[in-house]
Hints:
This protein is mostly helical. 78% of the residues lie in helices and 3% in strands.
Amino acid sequence: MKKIVNILALIGGFIFLGIGAIGMFIPLLPTTAFFILAALLLAKGSSRFHTWFINTNMYKTYIGKAMKDKKMSRKEKLKLFLGLTLVFGFAIFIIPVIYGQIVVFVVYLGHIYYFMFRIKTEKEEIHVQ
């Protein structure tokens, strides 16, 4: 059973990694959220793949600082919130059952809470010349 869970976690990790990679080029996809999900699932599925992922430039650029220092810039947060709102809004729109819509909305609120109150916003430095 554990092997099946690990395989499913790896498959999910690589799916979210792919979606996050697409999000690097499409501004509406929340790259950071998908990379965090990928990192968590890859850690569950395989320590080798997790180690590989956290050493990639994608990880370091998009979520390394957020995971290590628990900080994101205001611009990164805004892009993340916009992407999350679009993705979860679309999911709520296509789910025909009200209970499913409520579950998706609660998950959305959990994401918003986490990134607003658990991940600090970096102060922007003002460069005076």
